[in-house]
Amino acid sequence: MGQTFAEQILGHASGRSDVQAGDMVVVNVDLVMMHDSLSPSIIETLHNELGAERVWDRDKVAVVIDHVAPAATVRQAEQQQHVRRWVAQQGISHLFDVGRGISHPVLIEEGLVQPGMLVVGSDSHSTGYGAAAAFGSGMGTTDIALALATGQTWFRVPETVRVNAVGNFQPGVSVKDFGLWAARTLRADGATYQSVEWHGVDFLSWRERMTLATLSIEVGAKAGIVAPTGLGAEHPVPEWLRVEADASYSRVVECDLSTLEPQVSVPHYVDNVVDLADIGRVAVDVVYLGTCTNGHYEDMAAAASILKGRRLAPNVRMIVVPASSESLHRAASDGTLATLLAAGATIGTPGCGACIGRHMGVLAPDEVCVFTGNRNFRGRMGSPGANIYLASPEVAAATAITGYITHPRNVLDSTEQAVFA
Amino acid sequence: MPRIWVFGNDVNTDQMVPGRYAPYMLGANDDVRRYAFIEARPDFAPNVQSGDLIIAGPNFGCGSSREYAPLALKRCGVGAIIAPLFARIFFRNALNLGIPCFTADIREQVADGDVVEFDLAAGLITNNGNQIQLPPPEGWMREVWAEGGIVPFYRRHGRFPATGA
């Protein structure tokens, strides 16, 4: 019988070619990612609890300062200083410091994550490495410390939910709408303990695929792997990683992208998704474009294409936090950034921004935010009294222009009407 | 005697300990214990006693990988968590910290504030004379609980759980 991507990768990483869903395996990890928020506790556990003096392989550890970058308090600055000194003391090869961006896109940009790899990270959105067809999985402090000490971890080989896309998006609709559709269809626990495979999106760049891979944890998944076809020469696919026709899936769902309408996740659960057309008039205080899910170059460009020649509505703040310095650099080079600034948006240091409610634009009680990120949990971005709506960069841009949650088509239509009036 | 604390469906780790109260954000001598459910259930941390039980709906612990969420519950002394489905990162973090998690739906058989007897080894809750038998956990989970978490388990056995000798 054929194998799913998860079975192939976990089989390869465990040295057992025949693994199936349900098997317990010990795997060699190709890369361990740790970020500033949890690194102090990971370092403590590694040395003081596990008694390990050194990481198992200094070339297979990536440390990323992205969660509060740059530091907002002296206490965080001290902890980041501690992490930098530890990196130097251990001789770790890969430190990505303040401003380089969020771990998930950065490690793919750096070529450290490649198709077929097994990557564990101290961040739940480590499923995002599936954008480059790696098995990426999020873990806590202790599991990451164990992986640092041993170069190994253990998994129950997951069953797989297969999500098929057919067709392509209408104007104003994009991959975020597909991802939110999947959350709506599968629900928040629809893939718990399982892997998600995304098929039929060969036309997307790896950054666009990261929207799907990061949203995989929002349906509970252990990994979210986008089929590696169409990735390009910089991401060579090993010959053993392929779609096997007779692989077994626990569930298969299909989305016709050509009939998909903009989706919005309404407070306070990610799977609380409705058609934008059905939510009525929701006035917005903040439009926030960023995160590993939708803060990439493509997302800024999509927003800029709608904001070009237009201005933010009065009383709307638009904060753009690029997912990586590479995305920011591209946006600065081709005029995208200038368009966003001309419309009235402002730009933050590449990184996680206010996604965890710690700095760079946290929300006040009763404020309403349209957010291109991945979680709208109560209190996620600051006050538990704030309301967060998850949407695409296109919807975010249209909303910034009108001041209420808006279909991108309506912004373009009304402007055209104004021009011809 | 343990008290029952009942929680709803899809309780996420941002509700357990908001990211704004992570150890990374706190003073060096502060204790994350104080912030367990600080906004979602402010009466929890000041009143929870060692050995108390959390009973919840499905998808308990969804969201982030922050181990300080179950760590806060451990430092509060939570004796076990019983829910019909646990989010996987939370389940693994709780196992690693040695917090017993039982996969079962007993929300119909207990109420918030009930004071019960709990026999961890037998997986038995006695509530006002009624016995609630929890499904037995996998043997390897019980082994990790018995060691007090994955670190002592690994240091003693030199291997991961459920993966043979």
From TrEMBL, chain A:
Binds 1 [4Fe-4S] cluster per subunit. One of its GO terms (molecular function) is 3-isopropylmalate dehydratase activity. InterPro entries: Acnase/IPM_dHydase_lsu_aba_1/3, Acoase/IPM_deHydtase_lsu_aba, Aconitase_4Fe-4S_BS, Aconitase_4Fe-4S_dom, HAcnase/IPMdehydase_lsu_prok, Homoacnase/IPMdehydase_lsu, IPM_dehydratase_rel_enz. Its cofactor is [4Fe-4S] cluster. It is an enzyme of class 4 (lyase). The keyword Transmembrane helix does not apply. This is 3-isopropylmalate dehydratase large subunit. [4Fe-4S] cluster binds at C292, C352, C355. Pathway: Amino-acid biosynthesis; L-leucine biosynthesis; L-leucine from 3-methyl-2-oxobutanoate: step 2/4. Keywords: 4Fe-4S, Amino-acid biosynthesis, Branched-chain amino acid biosynthesis, Iron, Iron-sulfur, Leucine biosynthesis, Lyase, Metal-binding. It catalyses: (2R,3S)-3-isopropylmalate = (2S)-2-isopropylmalate. Its EC number is 4.2.1.33. Residues 20-278, 280-403 form the Aconitase/3-isopropylmalate dehydratase large subunit alpha/beta/alpha domain. Catalyzes the isomerization between 2-isopropylmalate and 3-isopropylmalate, via the formation of 2-isopropylmaleate. The gene is leuC. Heterodimer of LeuC and LeuD. Belongs to the aconitase/IPM isomerase family. LeuC type 2 subfamily. One of its GO terms (biological process) is L-leucine biosynthetic process.
Automatic annotation (TrEMBL), chain B:
Pfam families: Aconitase_C. Keywords: Amino-acid biosynthesis, Branched-chain amino acid biosynthesis, Leucine biosynthesis, Lyase. One of its GO terms (molecular function) is 3-isopropylmalate dehydratase activity. It is an enzyme of class 4 (lyase). It catalyses: (2R,3S)-3-isopropylmalate = (2S)-2-isopropylmalate. InterPro entries: Aconitase/3IPM_dehydase_swvl, AconitaseA/IPMdHydase_ssu_swvl, IPMI_Swivel, LeuD, LeuD_type2/HacB/DmdB. The keyword Amino-acid biosynthesis applies. One of its GO terms (biological process) is L-leucine biosynthetic process. Its EC number is 4.2.1.33. Pathway: Amino-acid biosynthesis; L-leucine biosynthesis; L-leucine from 3-methyl-2-oxobutanoate: step 2/4. Catalyzes the isomerization between 2-isopropylmalate and 3-isopropylmalate, via the formation of 2-isopropylmaleate. Heterodimer of LeuC and LeuD. Belongs to the LeuD family. LeuD type 2 subfamily. NCBIfam families: LEUD_arch, PRK14023.1. This is 3-isopropylmalate dehydratase small subunit. It comes from Herpetosiphon geysericola.
